What we know:
Layout: E1 3-5, H1 7-16, E2 20-24, E3 37-38, H2 41-46, E4 56-60, H3 67-77, E5 83-86, H4 89-104
Parallel strand pairs: 1-5, 2-3, 2-4, 4-5
Amino acid sequence: MGQRISAETLYHHLRAGVRLTLIDVRWSQLGEIPGAVHVPVIDLEDIPRPWPQDEDLVVFCQQGRGVGDYAAEVLEEQGYTRVLVLEGGLDAYLRVVNEKAANAQP
């Protein structure tokens, strides 16, 4: 099952322009990470995607429980070796973004 990436690390990677593919595996999109591709987890099983093999694939769900792990497992079964699961999901990432924005204000 995919390795973990913290919301803080993902935030810094995105700010630094690190190449990675963000995959939102939630059923519906309420909030998002800019640049993420929305593919509900059930669709990952049915239609393999031609994502890059030479960059990290970061999968995320809302709270980082279960669905992201399952999506990582599906991708690994499809032959992807650089799969990361966002710890705490979108909720954790948005907390980091909001914290950074609050700290940046005078």
